[in-house]
Design a protein that fits this description.
By secondary structure, the chain is an alpha+beta fold. Helix content is 40%, strand content 27%.
Length: 163
């Protein structure tokens, strides 16, 4: 029995190039080669799993944006009829400033607002700018534009002019 450099006792069969160290078999006289291969393989598998997860999250992000835009359109359409001041909180900063300068502060709000019914389609998201085709139950369809500000989607017509 021989003791290697780090204190493992093992049997050596140098004629066959196999060494047994601490009950583990090493190939080519290299103790722990299999252990290293398993560690490398495990590291590679973990790296692949992390990359697959990151790619999946990146690809499904668009779905989250679309869901957020759909919810915003529905909420905005209802607020426009029921409470324009509430609707203004969903506008991008540029449009909110215009609203605040032009709105009549004595505006009378409806007593029993109803939920607006709109159809939302053709959502296109390009980074922090998006658009959607919105069709109210009574009226023509039109394209509405959005901008993401501080991580939140806002209704923003000037986004239509964003390159």
């Amino acid at each position: 029995m021989e003791v290697d450099a780090i204190g493992f006792a093992g049997d050596t069969d140098r004629a066959h190039g196999v060494e047994r160290v601490g009950g583990q078999r090493g190939v080519g006289g290299q103790p722990g080669l299999w252990r290293r291969r398993w560690m490398v393989g495990g590291t590679v598998a973990l790296t692949v799993a992390v990359l697959v997860t990151a790619i999946t999250v990146a690809l499904t992000r668009g779905d989250d944006d679309e869901s957020e835009i759909r919810a915003l359109v529905q909420e905005f359409a209802t607020a426009v009829e029921a409470d324009p001041f509430q609707a203004a909180t969903m506008l991008c900063l540029e449009e909110r400033e215009i609203f605040e300068q032009t709105v009549n502060p004595d505006l009378v709000l409806p007593e029993s607002p109803t939920k607006a019914e709109v159809s939302i389609s053709e959502i296109v998201v390009e980074s922090d700018v998006a658009s959607a085709k919105v069709e109210p139950r009574s009226g023509p369809a039109r394209r509405i534009y959005f901008r993401k500000e501080n991580g939140i989607w806002t209704v923003c017509d000037p986004a239509s002019r964003t390159p």
